[in-house]
Amino acid sequence: MEPTTAAATSGGGMGGIFFIMIAFLAIFMFLSTRSQKKRDNEQKKLIKSLVKGDKVVLLGGIVGTVSGFNGDIIEVKVSETTKFSVLPHGIVTVYKDAPAAVVNGAK
Fold first, then answer.
1. What is the 8-class DSSP label of residue 81?
2. Residues 51-103: pLDDT tens digits?
3. Are 19 and 25 in contact (CB under 8 A)?
4. 77 versus 15: which is more confidently predicted?
5. Residue 79: which of 91, 67, 61 has the closest Cα?
6. What are phi and psi of 65, to 5 degrees?
7. Angle between helical axes of 13-48 and 2-11 (0-180°, round to 10)
8. CATH level 2 (architecture), domain 51-104
9. Where are the beta strands (DSSP E) in 1-107?
10. Any residues with CB less than 8 A from the CB of 56 and at least 6 apart, and which?
11. Average pLDDT of the residues in 20-43
């Protein structure tokens, strides 16, 4: 009689493991979406705080100065003759009132 009860109790363990795996997956999903929302909110605040003259780094690593706004498009001046029209999500970093040496990487 003893082997029958052992088999019956070992079969119920799979449901418990499955439940634990689902719980860990749900916690992981919650934490990852929460951190992504936090990053998105910080990026939105960064973009809303942009003013003309701020130094910015674009997604491709290009460094420039905000020269104006055209609706949702941000005009970025890279050199005396070159301007880019950039969407807000293309701006990675903003240097407010930073010296040119910091932005250009000089030490």
1. S
2. 898 899 998 899 999 999 988 899 999 999 999 999 988 898 888 765 555 55
3. no
4. 77
5. 67
6. -120, 135
7. 10
8. Roll (2.30)
9. 55-58, 63-70, 73-77, 83-86, 91-95
10. 50, 63, 64, 65, 66, 76, 91, 92, 93, 94, 95
11. 90
Q: Which residue, chain included where needed, has tokens 């605040």?
A: 45
Q: What is the pTM of this model?
A: 0.58
Query: Regarding predicted confidence, which is higher, 5 or 45?
Result: 45
Both structure tokens of 8: 């019956």
CA nearest to 48, candidates 23, 66, 24, 30: 66
22 backbone φψ class: left, alpha, beta (φ>0; ψ -120 to 50) = alpha
At 9, list the tokens: 């109790």
- At 27, list the tokens: 């916690």
Residue 75 amino acid letter: E
